[in-house]
Specification:
Length: 161
């Protein structure tokens, strides 16, 4: 069974941890100096926050986390069926975890990831270049939403998981 994932950029990690811990009625399952994550069953969500220098504040991306390789294969098939470019990142380290993942953006530029976590990592990790996901529709239709995740160069701060 897949789990919904949302990653939010925050300005003050301690204040945000206190807020979300109160909101969810639970402490984070993972905390780092720049990151926190709640793995909740009600609602079934992997909710993460991070404070990164110069990074976007608010929703950075959303996604689907799966529990095994067969489920990941099925979700990858649905990404391809969605009719938008898919960025197949493969094995990566991101958000203090080792994962296998791919990315896609909806017609308005909201970036989605599909991933399977295989273990923990001691570093935050890297973020791919989302430029291949940018669509002309997202750029033209952007009114009140960020333009395709403010496509950042590879040297920009990480914005993953």
């Amino acid at each position: 069974m897949s789990r919904f994932h949302m990653h939010v950029g925050v300005a003050d990690l301690d204040k945000s941890i206190a807020f979300y811990s109160g909101l969810f009625g639970a402490a984070p399952s993972v905390t780092k100096p720049d990151y926190a994550k709640w793995m909740l069953d009600d609602p079934r969500i992997n909710f993460a926050i991070s404070v990164r220098d110069g990074a976007h504040r608010g929703i950075e991306h959303v996604g689907l986390q799966v529990e095994d390789a067969d489920e990941l294969k099925a979700v990858y098939g649905r990404l391809k069926d969605a009719g938008a470019p898919v960025l197949e990142e493969g094995a990566t380290t991101c958000c203090y975890a080792k994962s296998e993942k791919s990315w896609i953006a909806d017609p308005d530029g909201v970036v989605w990831e599909a991933f399977l976590t295989n273990g923990e990592a001691t570093v935050y990790g890297d973020s791919p270049d989302f430029a291949p996901l940018a669509s002309a529709d997202a750029a033209e239709g952007a009114c009140c939403v960020p333009a395709t995740v403010e496509v950042r160069p590879a040297s920009a701060p990480n914005v993953c998981c």
